[in-house]
Amino acid sequence: AQKVTQAQTEISVVEKEDVTLDCVYETRDTTYYLFWYKQPPSGELVFLIRRNSFDEQNEISGRYSWNFQKSTSSFNFTITASQVVDSAVYFCALSEAKYSGGGADGLTFGKGTHLIIQP
Amino acid sequence: DTEVTQTPKHLVMGMTNKKSLKCEQHMGHRAMYWYKQKAKKPPELMFVYSYEKLSINESVPSRFSPECPNSSLLNLHLHALQPEDSALYLCASSHLQGLSKNIQYFGAGTRLSVL
Question: How far does B114 lie from chain A, in Å, by closest CA?
Fold first, then answer.
């Protein structure tokens, strides 16, 4: 069975501070995908990043960066110089990476971290 | 364009009503998904369609009936729902092959209230 744990229920920081959202996962699959999604108050889930299980390179996109460590089953997300617009619920998610033609797999989500950026 | 369109945005129905939720995408995705999200909870997978065939049903009650008429459309037919079915229903779609395989793009959801 797959499981994603986001231990931080809510984080509140002042604008321009750096903040890291933690994600720990469990899976028996040898190949899998990890994701981060953002859900603002409007409700739509916005895709941020997908990482393959065999690719442990860290990634940076503007103020966002992700640290994937297979040895600790963690996929943490850091926002540098946070802004009020970053306020949202952030979900870490996991899915099996099926072979081509093997159909799709749904996402298993963590409980989410509510990030509040205060001006 | 990564747009998934869901209609209606809001729906109020009685327990004896029959209604349908609609989801549409024109990204050429061959996988489509229904998720249910209760307030302050993560989305939970309900159904997955791969190449227009139901491939995953997460033991969802039969009062929810999915349908995939073609590769661009996904419906969720609702009948005899219970008040505890009130939630945000999210549709998503993804490619089944290629570099962007399984990156799911979500619609804005239908907020359902069952009275």
Answer: 19
Q: What is the pLDDT of residue A56?
A: 82
Give the model's pLDDT for residue A54.
Answer: 87
**What tokens were used for B36?**
């249910």
Q: Looking at the predicted structure, is the pLDDT value of residue A103 above 90? A: no
Q: B41 touching A, CB under 8 A?
A: yes
DSSP chain B: ---EEEE-SEEEE-TT-EEEEEEEE-S---EEEEEEE-TTS--EEEEEEETTEEEEE-S--TTEEEEEEETTEEEEEEES--GGG-EEEEEEEEBSSSTTBT--EE---EEEEE-
Is B63's Cβ below 8 Å from some Cβ in A? no
> What's the gap in Å between the CA of B45 and the closest CA on chain A?
6
Lowest model confidence (mean pLDDT) among A81-95, A101-115, B45-59: A101-115
Q: Residue A45 and residue B111: Cβ atoms within 8 Å?
A: no
Decide if A106 and B56 are in contact by the 8 Å CB cutoff. yes
DSSP state, residue A46:
E
* CB contact B97 to A (< 8 Å): yes
- Closest approach of chain B CAs to the CA of A2, in angstroms? 13
Question: What pairing do the DSSP bridges indicate for beta strands B110-114 and B10-13?
Answer: parallel
Residue B79, phi then psi, degrees to nearest 5:
-150, 130
What is the distance between the alpha carbons of residues B17 and B15, in angstroms, rounded to a whole number? 6
- Per-residue pLDDT, B104: 96
Contact B103, B92 (CB under 8 A): no
